[in-house]
Amino acid sequence: MVSLSVLLDVFVPVLPSGVLVITAATAAAAGSGAATGRVPHDVPDILALILSAATASVLGDLVAYRLAWRGGDRLDRAIARSRRLTAAQERLGDALSRGGGALVVLARFAPAGRSVVSFCAGAAHRRARDFVPWSALAGLSWAAYSVALGYFGARWLGATWLATAVSLAALFGAGAVAGFLMRRRPA
Question: Which of 27, 34, 110, 169 has its CA 20 to 30 A from that of 16?
């Protein structure tokens, strides 16, 4: 369920994939004894969650990238009608051509940033070798961060709703910072 949500949230950015990843990590921490302070022996559960969320993230990015690549004139006209999408596409193209794929990583944390970056990279016909490694790094860093929030939230606060709420606040805070940084004009 978590993987499917992460895979599809590139197309429907309002899906609660981050919430599901954090909740699953909190539940895994509670089941492993980490929430009670004992040393967890079920670390493979946490690693499996990170790997499945990261893999689903990259696969979703690649599907969106390929769809946009093949989108043709219709997609180009839709992007051209929006100043924000046109500007995002230009900034992404410039960043990728300069080797600055950190924008792809940053966008993974911003609300709907993943969608914009994946579709714009495909529509701009950016080379896959310029996009895929950054997408993989973005998916892995986002998955590890989200799982760590749920895991350590449960460890420090117990497997309670408070732990999940604090973890979600940290995830949304990271998204707000990422969104702010993406909107800033480069110097």
Answer: 34
Residues in the chain: 187
> CB-based contacts of 51: which residues, under 8 Å, 6+ apart?
143
Q: From the centroid of its chain, how far is CA 59? A: 12
What distance in Å separates the CA atoms of residue 58 and residue 62, rounded to the nearest whole number? Answer: 6
User: How many CB atoms sit inside 10 A of residue 15's CB?
Assistant: 16
pLDDT, position 172 = 76
Q: What integer is the mean pLDDT of 46-50?
A: 89
Would you tell me how many other CB atoms lie within 10 Å of the CB of residue 96? Answer: 21
118 vs 6: CA distance, rounded Å: 14
Per DSSP, the residues of 77-118 read HHHHT-HHHHHHHHHHHHHHHTT-THHHHHHHHSTTHHHHHH
Q: What is the pLDDT of residue 102?
A: 80
CA triple 102-163-33, angle to 5 deg? 100
Burial of 126 per CB tally in 10 Å (0-12, 13-18, 19+): buried
Q: Report d(CA 178, CA 106) in Å as an integer.
A: 6
Helical pair 161-183 and 128-157, crossing angle rounded to 10 deg: 150
| Predicted local confidence at residue 187, as pLDDT | 46
Instruction: Write out the H or E segment, with its range, that includes residue 150.
Output: helix 128-157
Q: What is the pLDDT of residue 35?
A: 47
